[in-house]
Amino acid sequence: MKAARPRLLLITTLISLLTATVSLAGTLQGTVVNRTTGQTVPNVDVDLLSPMQGMALLGSVKSDAQGHFTADNAAIGTAPVLIRVTYQGVSFNSFSPPGRPQVDVEVFNVSKDPKTIAIDSHVVIFQPNRDKLVGAEEYNVKNNSQPAVAFFCTEGNFEFAIPEKGSLQRVTATSGALGMDVPQASIDKGKGHFAIAYAFRPGETNVRLSYELPYTNNAAIVKLPATYGGMRLLLVAPPGVTLTGDGVTPAGQEQGMNVFVHDPLPAKGMLTVSVAGVGSTPGDGGGQQAGQEGNSRTQGQEVDVAPPRIDDLKWPLLVGLLTLFALGFLLLWRKQVVVTPAPAEGPAAAPAKPSKKAKEAAAVEAVKETVSANLDSLKEEVFRLELRKQAGTISDEEYAREKARVEKLLRDLVRG
Length: 416
Prior knowledge:
The protein is α+β, with helices and mostly antiparallel strands. It has three domains: 20-107, Carboxypeptidase-like, regulatory domain (Immunoglobulin-like, Sandwich); 118-288 and 317-331, Immunoglobulin-like (Sandwich); 372-391 and 398-416, no CATH class. Helices cover 23% and strands 35% of the residues. An eight-stranded mixed β-sheet has the order 15-14-18-11-10-20-23-22, with helices on one face. Helix 3 crosses helix 4 (356-391) and helix 4 (356-391) packs antiparallel against helix 5. The longest helix has 36 residues, at 356-391.
């Protein structure tokens, strides 16, 4: 009889946890906090959007006198949710992954001072696509303001330019706090110059854009304009594509792509490069047509324990993947080498044996890291899929099939 009591207690506990989990399904709670002042923000509009449904509105509520809010929708808990709060005329976004029923939404006081931000680096990637040359660019923007404020201007507070004869396809921005790309409306300034009106919150933000250029006879002369001066410039092209220009220096390969560097350009300067060749994407078997590869994953695939390698993502036309390459190059570029000092001579001390509590904490942390890594991977897949749809390089049938597959992976991750 005594042996049955622990088992009964365990069953009761599991039932209680299951009941609590079910009760939270469809409900999202949170608090709106002003990180400039450290105070909660009452009586502001809070909108819940679904990235998996084209940013469809799931519901709108207001924060109470203490800055708290509660929203109900059947989609909450089963898919990612974007929370948007309008404060001082600016939209601030936060991201809630599946299975997280509570989130704090950060807002900041708004500044119009352009010195609030600094542009750290610029990556340009070229990918031939039949008679078009696809360009993907990424700017790394830093906001180290003290006290912490957001930089925003309605007329456009981040400007960029694309090469002559270029056709702008898409612009997105993402901050480290949000963790996902949000499409931006471009403001046409004329003569290939554009701007976006985006609230650059403290920390790092990546502005990404893609465009198409004419690529007659598999060659093009590309004039890259520099809107901002003093930025590190990285150029990337796939194997089989030659890229030449004054001051352009080969720097080896990363992720199977050829990397080139160039000294920082002055503001409003121009770099002319020659691009030629058909090229191939990493992992395509050395020159096979991308359209012949198909999709390397099946509908019934289970979620990997670790995020999939970039080389295994064989999309037909990898506009979104080009942007992901840019992220990898930036991370490698910023990576620092840490030298561990040699231990002092003498008898080595026996390593302390971790306690049971420490082991349990490490296991929980490992699970969190695995879930976070898989969510990051899925977010990148969603971004790449939407880019391909925007660029017209995927059929409606394949788009619907891939979208259903990603949604299934999200559901499996939540259940797992």
